[in-house]
Design a protein that fits this description.
Elements (H helix, E strand, L loop, with lengths): L1 H4 L17 H24 L12 H9 L7 E3 L2 H14 L7 E3 L6 H4 L2 H9 L2 E3 L5 E6 L4 E6 L9 H23 L3 E6 L6 H15 L6 E3 L7 E6 L6 H5 L15 H16 L6 E6 L1 H9 L2 H11 L2 E6 L8 E6 L8 E2 L7
Parallel strand pairs: 1-2, 5-6, 9-10, 10-12
Antiparallel strand pairs: 3-4, 4-5, 6-8, 7-8, 9-11
């Protein structure tokens, strides 16, 4: 930092986010802060009092300041007003990159022109395809994010080891990119396909660390273990793309699955047996989701008939459209007549 500061006035506080950053990134931040300080001093010295001499940047300029790096070829803006503001900002604080700011004026929406919508959908998907035909599977839990590498339909040209190594090498390039796109932070565990040759493991490790070097977020990577697992931690700079753009499924409550029809029907049968043991009960009314009612009628019909004969009770199954798949009610009826064993809805498709 002393070398970058060049003996200028003032000083810098180096935060933990600077750990692991290369000299160019640090130099860019130093230059930006020095320019910002000089412009603030000029407004202080020349402006009439009272006057605003500094305020935090708005969203557009913060994005340029924080996300526009030397690796980016261009920044396209579909608003002349915002483009002028960005150009003015770049002229004052990042003049070396000013020529990479462009105004988008085509009639086609800018997201359609650059196919951004497709890329957003891909960045939210669990499965990411590799060019060879292999694919990655992303799974998020409360504790960590897992990434599974699979060969898919890729069979390679030579040996199985070559096929596996090629798939792992592609994954080692793509995973760091996906970590940045999805802004995945915290603990990440990558399950590479097992490689027999240690030289191939070293090659995959080298490609991965080189690809990860473009990441501005602080990170630490451990070597591939004997089980083919690589562990790394990545700084949480902000909320992940998945958190920002999705919400938990209201139907499964974020579990990602529902119980099978057979397990639900089995639980209903057990509840029927429990309540059929009451001598005062004449019949039972079973209310459940239409799919469960259909499974009870066709796959568990013999069970119901045997239980009716065993307990000398009648069972009415009612399909209720608005019920959740996993909800049901077995209600004992003390009097009244048994009208129908199965009452299914008569709507379209049922």
């Amino acid at each position: 930092m002393e070398e970058l500061h060049h003996g200028g006035e003032g000083g810098f506080i180096v935060r933990t986010a600077a750990e692991g950053q290369n000299r160019d990134n640090l130099a860019a931040d130093v230059e930006y802060l020095q320019r910002l300080w000089r412009s603030t001093l000029e407004r202080y010295q020349q402006g009439p009092a009272p006057a605003l001499i500094y305020r935090e940047l708005d969203l557009v300029l913060r994005c340029v300041r924080d996300l526009f790096t030397a690796e980016m070829d261009a920044c396209w803006i579909d608003s002349q007003e915002h483009a002028d503001r960005v150009q003015q900002f770049m002229h004052s604080f990042m003049p070396q990159a000013q020529d990479r700011i462009h105004v988008y004026t085509e009639p086609m929406p800018v997201f359609d022109h650059f196919d951004i919508e497709t890329q957003i959908r891909q960045a939210l998907a669990q499965k990411v395809w590799l060019r060879s035909g292999g694919y990655l599977v992303f799974q998020r839990t409360e504790a960590l994010t897992t990434i599974d590498v699979n060969t898919g339909g890729y069979v390679g040209q030579r040996t199985l080891e070559d096929t596996i190594t090629q798939t792992n090498l592609e994954a080692a390039k793509e995973i760091p990119r996906q970590l940045r796109l999805r802004n995945i932070g915290g603990l990440v565990v990558i399950d590479f396909i097992d490689m027999e040759a240690e030289a191939n493991q070293q090659k995959v490790m080298q490609v991965f660390t080189e690809s990860l070097s473009f990441d501005r977020a602080r990170h630490m990577v451990l070597p591939i273990s004997q089980f083919g697992l690589m562990q790394l931690t990545r700084q949480r700079t902000r909320e992940s793309l998945l958190t920002l753009m999705t919400s938990s499924c209201p139907y499964c409550e974020g579990k990602g699955f529902n119980r099978s029809l057979s397990s639900l029907c089995s639980e209903i049968i057990r509840e029927i047996i429990r309540k059929s043991s009451q001598a005062s009960v004449t019949h039972l009314k079973i209310s459940c989701h239409p799919d469960v009612a259909d499974a009870l009628a066709h796959e568990f019909g013999n069970w119901l008939e045997n239980l009716e004969e065993r307990f000398q009770k009648a069972y009415n199954v009612h399909a209720v459209e608005h019920m959740h798949l996993e909800d049901f009610d077995v209600h004992p009826v003390m009097d009244g007549e048994h009208t129908a064993k199965i009452q299914m809805p008569t709507g379209p498709g049922l």
